[in-house]
Structure formats: C-alpha cells, structure tokens
Amino acid sequence: MCGEADPIRAWSRDKLSLLERYLGAYSRIMSKQKQSWLRSYSYIDAFAGAGRYLDEDTREYVDGSPFVALRCIPPFDEYRFIERSSSRLGELRARVEKEFPGREMRFYHGDANDILRQISREITYGSWRRAFVFLDPYGLELEYSTVCSLAEAHTFDVFVNFSVMGINRILQREKLPSSKTVELLQRVMGDSEWLDELYAVQPALIESHDRSFRGRLRAERVASQYAERVRRVFPHVSHPVLMRNSRDAPLYVLFLASHNGTAAKITNDIFSAFEQVRTGRRTPL
C-alpha cells in the first residue's frame, strides 16, 4: 500500500510547471542533436521522493518531478532517480515501472551528493552523452562541492531549487552562528565569507564569543550570493526566480546553471513569462 503523500502548495505547482516547460525545450533540442553527434541524453532527479503529492484544497493527487520528466515529449533516453528514503523510492519505482514499462530507468538509494559525484564521473564530455539534473533538496542537503562536480564534467544542465528559507531559519538575529552552523553553510554555499558582511563584524569575530546583531537577511541577497558562487563554476546561470508562499514570503529560488548560453536564454524567457503572469514585474537580484 502506498504511503501518505506529502502536501503540495501553489509555489510547488509553479516550480513543476516551470520545470515542465524547460524540459520540453531541452528534450526537443537534444533529440535533434542525436541526428549528428549526440549518443543519448538522460534525466536525473536527485531528490525524487515518491513521485506524487496531495493537494490539500482539492484532495487530489499531483504528480511530482519524476512524472513531469517521464511525460516529456520527446522522451529522454534514460531516467535516473535518487532518493534517500527507501520507502519513498520503493513507491516511486513501483509506480513508474507500472506506468512506463520499457523505459530505461535506474534507481539509487542513498545520499544524493555521493551518487551525483559518481554519475558526474560516468557521463563525461568524451562519452558523447548529456544529461539534465533537477536539484530540489528537502532543505540544505545539497553540497556546493556536488555542484562543482557537475560543472567540471561539462555535460550537465542543472535546475537548482535553493532554500533561502532554510538559510534564514538557521541564522539567528541576535546571536553569532555556531561553528556547526558555519560548517553547514560552508558545505552548502562553498564558503562563509558573506557572513562577515551580514553580521557587520571584523573578519575574525565569527569565531569569537562577542555579542553581535545580524542585518536584515533579504531573500534576494541570499539568492544572489548563492547564484554568484554557482557562476564561478558554470559560465551561464539564468536569472533566479523567487518562489513565494501565499503571504508573499520567499521560500526558494529557482534557476538554471549550464555551459550553454542558449539554455540560459531559454530559461530566462520562461521565467520572465512566469513573472509577468504572477506579478507583472520582475524582482531584480
């Protein structure tokens, strides 16, 4: 019997809609490349979950990112799903194998960072294979070193859904971050230099016991800081779009990282159209 599905909100529906639009464009382009140099292209979902959500308003089930990808036309040559929960992965596997028999699929149970680094050594530039990676962690599980590994391969287009809400939650207003928090942020962001500016302290003060007050933690600033670090390893990063809840509070920032300028342009066009529908304006980051 299937387990209870996680709830889905409007902003998650928006995320899946943006993913669907980009995957359609990506797959059409890559399919044409198979007529010349490309051997195959894959879809990789690093935090796949069980593949379905429950809309608490309508009480209807909503398909998650694995099924958005599986229904993409033209289809990918291969699908890889990574999930740390064995029960969620089992539920996902049972359903996709039933609904999409004959598709080339692989399932990985474990830490997405370890598995993605392994895959990045497999789908190499000289293999004439390419892949799209969807990075939608539950919180702050995605490590910056993993993003670097994907960038070094020069074979991946990457959609990143980064939790600005998660960063905000672990940084207290009237207390310097603990060494454990700083270590976490270093793994996620690649470094912790930006904390000095945020807390308006001297360079060595982060390690002291002095009392400090951090400045206002604007979601746009956190998103910009993270996107800036991704640009150090991926030459083309789209304009980030902030995903907000019903109270207009920022939760996540979604953007594309690629070695292909056309990919970033396509994403910018998709995101701009979304922003125009949602707010009629674009929020500069």
Structural notes for this entry:
- The protein is built from 10 helices and 11 strands.
- It is α/β, with parallel strands linked by helices and 285 residues long.
- It has 2 domains: 6-169 and 220-278, Rossmann fold (3-Layer(aba) Sandwich); 172-216, no CATH class.
- A hairpin with a 5-residue loop joins strand 10 and strand 11.
Query: What would you call the shape?
Result: globular
Compute the average pLDDT.
89
Structural class: alpha/beta
Kindly state the percentage of residues in helix: 40-55%
CATH architecture of the largest domain: 3-Layer(aba) Sandwich
Structure keywords:
285 residues, Rossmann fold, 3-stranded mixed β-sheet, 10 helices
How would you sum up this structure in a few lines?
The protein is an alpha/beta fold and 285 residues long. The chain is built from ten helices and eleven strands. α1 packs antiparallel against α10 and α4 (112-122) packs parallel to α5.
Produce the secondary structure layout.
Elements: E1 6-8, H1 10-33, E2 40-45, E3 52-55, E4 60-63, H2 65-70, E5 78-83, H3 86-99, E6 105-109, H4 112-122, E7 129-135, H5 144-153, E8 156-163, H6 164-170, H7 179-189, H8 193-199, H9 219-231, E9 236-237, E10 241-244, E11 250-258, H10 261-278
